[in-house]
Amino acid sequence: MSVNALYTDLSGYYDLMCVDIDYQAQSHAIRRLHQIFGNGGTTHLDLACGTGPHVRHFIDFGYASSGLDINQPMLDIATTRCSEAHFTLQDMSDFKANEPQDLITCFLYSIHYNDGIEKLKACISSAHCALKSGGIFCFNAVDKDKIDNALSVKHSAQQESDLFTFRSGWHYSGQGEKQSLRLSIEKANAEGTQLWNDEHPMVAVSFAELSALLAPHFEVHVFEHNYEKIIPWDNASGNAIFVCVKV
């Protein structure tokens, strides 16, 4: 398989790439936050839903769950995983829900895929319009001013005779509204090793800037990036969970 084929068919490796993510813990934590801050409803939309693992958990929790993504092959996998859900091919920077929502989520720092402040503002506005009164918008984010370009995460996973090694890390130049997610996939087997690298452009924003963007639309609560306990953000860490209530 060529490098280009690996790039084109990245959707086929997405679940393997994310094999160490505890989707159930993340979904349960946001469900708890929704129970505390939400309006008691059960309509749910997941932005940048990928192959639908979070949607699967929310359906199992009893939600009428749906998802959107800009990658159709990802949505094809999601539809197989969650046949009960409604999925649409949309850009979360400018989306419309098929019905008013009680909960909108965006996991795995995907809020940063809004490439620039204007698109981020449009996403926030779209989420506000799509929510019912008392509905909440939950997502996790990284503060551009706390990014350490030298840090990255790495994990490996076996698939039949292939050993995959995945690496990812944030990079920010120190100025401007653009940061990137640097990603590499290494595939090794008896025939040799292949390496694929990419850099995903993303919006860079400080938590102070992000809170200011959200404030005209929502009552904003910020929590530590901890899916086991609900702890208010300490105003120091560079990762956090935002809970935004439509009032």
Automatic annotation (TrEMBL):
**Has the keyword Lipid biosynthesis been applied to this entry?**
no
- E.C. number, please? 2.1.1.234
Source domain of life is: Bacteria
Q: Which residues form the signal peptide?
A: none
Q: Pfam families attached here?
A: Methyltransf_25 (PF13649)
One GO term (biological process): methylation
Q: Does the keyword Zinc apply?
A: no
A molecular function (GO) held by this record is: methyltransferase activity
User: Could you tell me which Gene3D superfamilies the record lists for this protein?
Assistant: CAC2371-like domains, Vaccinia Virus protein VP39
Key words of the record: Methyltransferase, Transferase
**CDD domains on file:** AdoMet_MTases (cd02440)
Q: Which SUPFAM superfamilies match?
A: S-adenosyl-L-methionine-dependent methyltransferases
What stretch or stretches form a coiled coil here? none
Listed name of the protein: dTDP-3-amino-3,4, 6-trideoxy-alpha-D-glucopyranose
